[in-house]
Structures are given as C-alpha cells and as structure tokens.
Amino acid sequence: MQHLQEVSDFKYKYSDHIYGFCDFEVYSTPDRDQVVIYLHDPEPRALGAAHLQPHKVVNAFYREVLFRHLTPASRLSWYYVAQPEDCLPIHLEGLPGGYTDGHVDRMDQVESDLAVLLSIPASAIPVARR
User: Which of 2, 6, 60, 87 could form a disulfide with 130 if both were Cys (CB 3.0 to 4.6 A apart)?
Assistant: First the structure.
C-alpha cells in the first residue's frame, strides 16, 4: 500500500448550522483496486459529531475528496482511528465494493464499533492493529 493523500481539518456539515472537522488518511495499491481510508478522531471543537452520525462524515468525504482517487474496480475499507494504536473497522451495509453507490442515507446503514468505543473504557476494547 502506498500513501495516497492526507486531509487535515476536513470540514463536513453536521446539521444546518453546525460543522465538524476530521482528519483522513488514504492509502491504496498502485492500481487503486484496494483503497483504505482512516478517519481520525474528530477535533475537540467537533467532539461527538462523527460519533453521532458517522454516515455524514463518510458521505461528505466520499463526495468531496475520495471519488477522485477511485476506479470502477476500487474496493474500499474504512477505519475509525481513536488513538494511534486503536483502529476500528467501519462496515457499510449493503453497498457492494464497500462504498460504490456514493451515498449512505441513514445512520443504521453504517455498522461500526463506535458505540462500543463511547460506552466502554478504551482499555476494555479489543483492538485491531494497523
């Protein structure tokens, strides 16, 4: 995998008058068949926004940045990074190739371990290392 792009302070619309900010890192194989996206823990000024509605963050990043790097054959893997050593997979329900339809309508389409992260102390969470 090669480092494709890093986006700091990506701004996304959380609600009508509230915006959130997140950092992303994108990695891919040279042919871009496999693309891995890391959503880093939101900035304190937007704390809770990505946790509460991660589909808004995913949609915005896909539409505004990520689609430029993809091919029709790209398969995407999304991860939420709470701390540098903690990496939780984000599963996008019902979308072939990980995220090829370009939009997730509802929160329940994004299955994630973020709820676990919010309710259980970090030391008790099983962690996948990247």
Answer: 87
28: tokens are: 């891919």
- C-alpha 104/C-alpha 109 separation (Å) is 7
- Model's pTM, two decimal places? 0.66
Give yes or no for a contact between 20 and 46, defined as CB atoms under 8 angstroms apart. yes
Q: What is the pLDDT of residues 61-109, one digit of tens each?
A: 888 888 888 888 888 888 888 776 778 888 765 444 444 444 445 555 4
The DSSP code for 52 is H
Residues 6+ apart with CB under 8 A from 70: 32, 35, 76
- Cα(121)–Cα(5) distance, integer angstroms: 31
